[in-house]
Automatic annotation (TrEMBL):
One of its GO terms (cellular component) is plasma membrane. The keyword Transport does not apply. SUPFAM superfamilies: beta-lactamase/transpeptidase-like, Penicillin binding protein dimerisation domain, Penicillin-binding protein 2x (pbp-2x), c-terminal domain. Residues 641-699 form the PASTA domain. This is Peptidoglycan glycosyltransferase. The chain crosses the membrane at residues 7-31. Keywords: Carboxypeptidase, Glycosyltransferase, Hydrolase, Membrane, Protease, Transferase, Transmembrane, Transmembrane helix. It comes from Pseudopedobacter saltans (strain ATCC 51119 / DSM 12145 / JCM 21818 / CCUG 39354 / LMG 10337 / NBRC 100064 / NCIMB 13643). Pfam families: PASTA, PBP_dimer, Transpeptidase. Its EC number is 2.4.1.129. PANTHER family: PEPTIDOGLYCAN D,D-TRANSPEPTIDASE, PEPTIDOGLYCAN D,D-TRANSPEPTIDASE FTSI. GO terms for biological process: cell wall organization. The lineage of its organism: Bacteria, Pseudomonadati, Bacteroidota, Sphingobacteriia, Sphingobacteriales.
């Protein structure tokens, strides 16, 4: 074979290979295009477009009176498509970009107009279609931006893109913060009402079509969601913001004073079990913050507040009565090499069981429980379990601590367990469980589970209502109940709680000062104490029950009466003073003969009328110098009106009202004397400049 033939064969072979390869490629392309076209088209779409979730607005949480405790407000991520239809022409964009930059700088103040202009020009040069302008913009920001140059051309022409997100805010800041709680969708952590009712509050997410653009960024295709999200339902809690604020302030003040580790307060309605306030504070770096809900989660030895249960069982079993005598043996009682002591040196001698409860004698209750139940301890522990004290209450808030009520079958049971349980040791209960027991006494023997949520609403319509749930219909006999009430009242009237009694109303309750174990060292380590007071008020007709627990007070006294008692008294006093329903019915007022009408300062007509209406006062023989009388033999009122720049008439007003009215119209009052305003230096109706001084004389 010559060289020419050899070369031709190689050329033909190469050409044939190329032809065959080309035929294969064309055939394959046809197969992919025709046979597998739909498959790859769908795959391409899935890589460039997808449906993203649109967050729903979470439901609100309200207090019992309708005040907003938690809500969601819209927050926007503002972006810009710099290749939008209306600004594809460079001339249009560059004519208006500086004006847009100026408005953005003026609105947000985070960059100069020059910086904004440079960023927008650079993004334009890079052909960015999803350029970030501002995170966390408010609705007012968005509303204003829609009027800015370029953006005012509309969504598709001006390129303004607003991605809505929802921000959770708490109008009352840390008020009931741990009870309101939070919900973290990225983890299994759920706290408080936010977590417990997340299924209701969260709502249902919507869907929006987004497209993948350069840089791997997903940009919304349409401004509106394809599937609109469904907003969450609203939660109506039982919290009273006034009582909550009061409880938090009183607790924090006492914790600061005693330099304690932590503390909790719970206020509950006796009849319904509705929790009106629940405060928890922990010392963190010298400050007190709400970091843990001790009221429902801290299961610990309650100490002397548990004596109520011991007395309840023993009296119900007719082991002793209130007048039965007991020898406290000098305040010390030795059992199995262990000595049980009273806090009072030398003991109390021979006293009645009622007196023993009032002075909180450990020796008295230990001797009674041990002597009557040592041969059959199961009888005592079974009764405790019958009271449902060894079970969780199934609260509406997650994180309830597990109670511990031992039985003779428990591995840690010993000869000392029964006497220790008698006065609140070798068992565990949460503060709210102790409160529920005391509330049962106040409630005529019916133990009910504490209620935190009373209703769930969606768009104003009730979705679900929650009624009080009875745990134990009758904790003891009526006979026993009356004795317990008498003892609890006696603690405040004559016993350890005497320091908190109020002459205006009666408080019933029990102090508890318990030694707290020091970690692994137990009770042999550094001594720590827990001070608590649990009770209800008014004692004659209980409306509220309350528990106060202060852990490890390190400054001043550690006794419950001096540490927990003042918090109880402060909260109870203000609640009683603020709740007219607690007062005895006011007799119908009578105005007869020459009875003189009370002096009324000038003020707003409606306020004065309401005041007279509430007190039932009507003028029959009012002096013309004191009060005018209208044709209906009622009080004639004079409405106080004020206009800016015009001097109002403040004669007859008190100092506070006069300063308020004058200040509202821009005047600067100078005060002389005390009492009511009888003279003012500038005549009524005169026009004055803002800041003008006016002298008012009072007598």
């Amino acid at each position: 074979m010559n060289i020419r033939t050899n070369i031709l064969l190689r050329v033909y072979a190469a050409f044939g290979f190329i032809v065959v390869f080309a035929i294969f490629v064309v055939t394959r392309m046809g197969y992919v295009q025709i046979v597998q076209g739909e498959k790859y088209k769908a795959m391409a779409d899935s890589l460039s477009t997808k449906y993203a979730e649109v967050e729903a607005a979470r439901g609100n949480i309200y207090s019992a009176d309708g005040s907003l405790l938690a809500t969601s407000v819209p927050e926007y991520e503002i972006r810009m498509d710099l290749l939008a239809g209306g600004i594809q022409d460079d001339q249009v964009f560059y004519e208006k970009v500086d004006s847009l930059a100026y408005n953005l700088s003026k609105r947000f103040g985070d960059k100069s107009p020059r910086d904004y202009s440079r960023l927008l020009r650079d993004a334009r040069a890079e052909k960015q279609r999803y350029f970030l302008i501002k995170r966390k913009a408010t609705y007012q920001d968005l509303k204003a931006m829609k009027t800015f140059p370029i953006f005012n051309m509309g969504r598709y022409k001006g390129g303004l893109i607003a991605v809505q997100k929802n921000k959770r805010i708490f109008p009352f800041k840390d008020l009931a913060a741990r009870t309101i709680g939070y919900y973290n969708e990225n983890s299994s952590v759920s706290v408080g009402l936010e977590g417990a009712y997340g299924d209701y509050i969260n709502g249902e997410t919507g869907k929006r079509l987004v497209q993948r653009i350069a840089g791997g960024v997903w940009m919304p295709v349409n401004e509106d969601a394809e599937i609109a999200p469904k907003d969450g339902a609203d939660i109506i809690s039982t919290i009273d913001i006034n009582i909550q604020d009061l409880a938090q302030n009183a607790l924090k003040k006492q914790l600061t004073k005693s330099e304690a580790d932590f503390g909790t307060v719970v206020v509950m309605e006796v009849e319904t079990g509705r929790v009106k306030a629940i405060a928890n504070y922990t010392r963190v770096d010298g400050e007190y913050k709400e970091t843990f809900n001790y009221a429902i989660a801290q299961s610990a030895e309650p100490g002397s507040t548990f004596k109520l249960a011991s007395y309840m069982i023993a009296i119900d079993d007719k082991k002793f009565g209130l007048t039965d005598k007991i020898d406290t043996e000098g305040g010390k009682y030795k059992l199995f090499r262990h000595t049980i002591k009273d806090s009072h040196d030398g003991g109390y001698g021979v006293i009645t069981m009622k007196e023993a409860f009032e002075v909180s004698s450990n020796v008295a209750i230990v001797k009674q429980i041990y002597n009557h139940y040592k041969d059959n301890p199961s009888r005592f522990t079974d009764r405790l379990h019958d009271l449902r004290l060894g079970e969780k209450m199934g609260l509406q808030i997650p994180g309830e601590g597990s109670p511990l009520i031992k039985t003779p079958k428990s591995k840690s049971w010993s000869g000392l367990t029964l006497p220790q349980m008698a006065y609140g040791y070798e068992l565990k209960m949460t503060p709210i469980e102790i409160l529920s027991l005391y509330n049962a006494v106040a409630n005529g023997g019916k133990m009910i589970s504490p209620l935190f949520v009373q209703e769930i609403r969606r768009l104003g319509n009730t979705v679900e209502q929650f009624e009080p749930r009875v745990i134990n219909q009758k904790v003891c006999s009526d006979r026993t109940l009356e004795m317990l009430k008498e003892m609890l009242l006696g603690v405040v009237e004559e016993g350890t709680g005497k320091i908190i009694q109020n002459p205006l109303y009666k408080i019933a309750g029990k102090t508890g000062t318990a030694q707290v174990a020091d970690g692994s060292r137990g009770y042999k380590g550094k001594r720590k104490y827990q001070a608590s007071f649990c009770g209800y008020f008014p004692a004659e007709k209980p409306k509220y029950s309350m528990i106060v627990v202060v852990q490890n007070p390190t400054k001043g006294s550690y006794y419950a009466a001096q540490v927990a008692g003042p918090v109880f008294r402060e909260v109870a006093d203000v609640i009683y003073a603020s709740d007219l329903q607690m007062y005895a019915d006011v007799k119908e007022p009578k105005v007869i003969g020459n009875t003189r009408m009370p002096s009324v300062k000038s003020g707003h007509k409606k306020a004065s009328q309401q005041l007279y209406k509430e007190f039932g006062i009507k003028s029959y023989f009012a002096s013309a110098n004191e009060m005018d009388v209208d044709t209906n033999q009622g009080v004639a009122y004079k409405e106080i009106r004020s206009n800016s720049g015009v001097v109002p008439d403040v004669t007859g007003m008190g100092l506070r009202d006069a300063i308020y009215v004058l200040g509202n119209v821009g005047l600067n009052p100078i005060v002389k004397g005390a009492g009511e305003v009888y003279q003012q230096s500038i005549p009524v109706g005169a026009k004055v400049m803002k800041g003008t001084k006016i002298t008012i004389e009072l007598r």
